[in-house]
Every structure is written in C-alpha cells, then in structure tokens.
Amino acid sequence: MGSQGLELARAKMRAAGVDEVAVETFAHYYRLLEHGETGMIPEATIDPLDMPALADVEVDEQAAVEALAATAVIKLNGGLGTSMGMDHAKSLLCVRRGLSFLDISVRQVLHLREKYGVRLPLMFMNSFRTSADTLDAVARYDTLAVDGLPLEFLQNKEPKLLAKDLTPATWPKDPALEWCPPGHGDIYTALRGTGLLDRLLELGYRYVFVSNSDNLGAVPDPRVAGWFAASGAPFAIEAVRRTPSDRKGGHFARRKSDGRIVLRETAQTLEADKVALADLDRHRFTSTNNLWFDVRAMVDVLDQREGILGLPLIRNVKPVDPADPASPEVIQIETAMGAAIEVFEGAATIEVGRDRFVPVKTTNDLLVLRSDIYDLGTDFVLDQAADSVPYVDLDGDFYKLVGEFDKRFPDGVPSLKQASSLQVSGDVVFGHGVAVRGDVALREPKGRRVDAGAVLEGTREGAADA
Q1: Do 149 and 197 meet the contact criterion of CB atoms below 8 Å apart?
Q2: Residues 79, 170, 11: CA angle, nearest 5 degrees
Q3: Per the confidence metrics, is the pTM higher than 0.70?
Q4: Is the C or the N end of the chain the one with fewer CB within 10 Å?
Q5: 426 dihedral zone (left: phi>0; alpha: psi -120 to 50; beta)
Q6: What confidence tier does 465 reach under pLDDT thresholds 50, 70, 90?
C-alpha cells in the first residue's frame, strides 16, 4: 500500500482507462519522487565520452540490407506544436513542396521499401490529441500498413501532482490540464503494455529504429542499420558534435561508478555544473534522439525488471495551466527515452553527420528547413545544399507562431545558401526572391517590407532596402 497521494493517482489513472503497466511504472517514479529523488547527475560523477564516427566504419552492403529488412520504424508523434501556435499534430505542418513532416517521412519509408525490397513497417506513437489527425493524414497512403502491425499505438498519460503535497491536481476550468504525458521515455512502457514488442518478435523483426517526427534527417538508412547489427549492441543512439546552439542541451558522458554511458539532460544538471554543461570541448556530443534497439534485448530487460525499465527520473515543475503562471505549481514526472542507454550493458553511440539531425523546434528552424539550405531529392531525403547551416534568430513577438510567421513570408522564404546568420528584430515582411549573404542583422522598430529580389548584407537599422 502506498501513500495517499499515490493511491489517489493510481485510482485516477485506472478510472481513465490507463494501462496497468503504465500505472505501475508511474507508481515506481512516484515513490522515487516521494523519497527526494531529483534525477540529478553531478559533474563529479561522470567523464567525457568519445566515440567512433559512422563515416569511418566499414559496413557490408548486403549485411546492411539484411539489417534493414529486420527493422521496424517508430516515429514519436505525440506533439501538437503548441509552442508554435498549433492546435493539431505538429507533423502535419507543411515544410517543403506542399508536403508535411508526415508526408515526407512516409515517402522516405515507401521509397526504401521499393529500393531494397524490404517490409520496413512504419508506426507512429501518437497521443490522444494527435491520433485522429495523423490517421486521417496517412489514410491516403493505402500501401503503408504492414500485415500484423498497427499504424499507431498511443503514449500513456499520467496525473500532474501538486508540488505542495504530491496529490493529483484538479483544474475544473479545463480538466484536460490535470494530465500530462510521461515524456518520450514512455515508449518502452507503451510498447510493453500494447504487446507490440512480442508481436514484432513473432513477425521476425529484430531491430527497432525510433526518431522524432519533426526530424526529417532521421531516415532509416541501411548503412546505420548495418552498423548497429554488426555492433552486437543491445541499444544505440546516434550522436552529433555539439555546436554553440547546443550549449544548453543534453550530452553524453560515461559514469565513473560502473562505466555505463549516460545521457545527461539540462534538467538533470546542477546549477553549479552549468558551466561544465556548456563546455563544448569537454562534452562534445549531443543526442539526435535517433535510437536503435534490439527487440529481444529489450524484452529480456523488461522481463527482468518486471516491466519497468527504470529510467532516470526527470522532475519538471510547472504551473498546472501553462498559460496562467499564477495557477497552482505542479510536478510532472517525466523520463527521456535516450536515457535507456545506461540500462543496457554494451550499449553504444555512433557519431553521425548533422544531415541526420534536422529538428524543427521553433520557427527559426522552420525558416532554415524551408529555405534553399536543403534540397529534397526523389528519395525524399534532405540533402544539405550549402556548406553550413546559418544561425537564425527571428523576433519572437512577430515570428514565434506559425500563422504570424507565414504572414511575413507571403511569397516564400529568402535564399540562405550564402548566409552565415540572420537576426531580425521588429516586424519585417519579406518579398519574393530575397537573398541573405554573410551575417545580416535587421533592426526595424517601426517595421519594414523587404522588396522582392533584394540582397541583404550586413547590419541594417531602419535602413532602406538594398
């Protein structure tokens, strides 16, 4: 028997029809929280991690195709894109040539099936809020479903807990806000609870490739599949070199106590260790959130642990209503799927190129993705057409929301192929065929329209068009 808060939370989850595996997983983390667990990883307990690069690894072509043939693909697709002003599945956002993230991801998989003659199923881990939108959108692809496997499974939900006493929060104004997702670490709980892991084994699948739906660089490439199969690792994550834009993000390290690889997120970093977190020379690699796991190894570990993988706890404190800072403070219990790397002995990391890591978290990223920095080939794979990706910082007052962003690029986004950076302060509307060269900073407190065909170079403060 647990504490009153835990029993109330369990009852609430069961009344909402949450799977029992998810209920007991939540109970595990609740107890950790109750006993003061913070999930913090002190700098003194870890060492920097080095790793091989995919570019330096020899992969047999036939073995690569065989590995791909034994792979199933899962896209994390539970997000609504609310930070960008969206109220539907973020993956439905149009990004290139009238195609959405979802369209491009589906076509990447269909192309690989045809090219290599493999089954390569694609499944989406949806939330209750993205399920209907996603299934409606993929209905046009009548060959996408693979016999014996669903196109989707749902991530679980859990109650937000009042910070003052760890009882489930209530919010009559909008009861939906009483719930939160458990973080993408829930994928293992959801796969276990739905029976999909066992089903994959029954159908002859050995490996699973997981990535975010907003990362179009995350193609289930046979070369990476071949490397993973040859490595014999039970679990692996693709990594990239950190850049200045990654200073505040998570990184890989090796735990001193047992030599296991760990993925330390920002929320798991002590304030005193934030300088070390930002040191790109010390901690050189960050996660792409593209991960691979051996299905049999995952089943075995979950069996050994009675269905609870035991990922590190992430304690996230927020107001119960994100739009109302004065609403009661709650704790959301979360886990990160990449943190599973520390659970598996012999887990591996591999350095990949930035072409496999093109996430879109803000409209700054969206501008780059829609620009001529990338070409979209007949295989629906993004090819970086410029030598480097420019730094983009758009004024949040005017560009943060997708609807407002689109109004300011009514005739298409500017050319960024020759740009090093673009910073915009103020309300600037771009005409057709604008080109940005070098480092450009526009500071326009009174607003401005950039004429069609203009070439922008250098810093401009209320200046006339070039």
Answers
A1: no
A2: 85
A3: yes
A4: N
A5: left
A6: very low
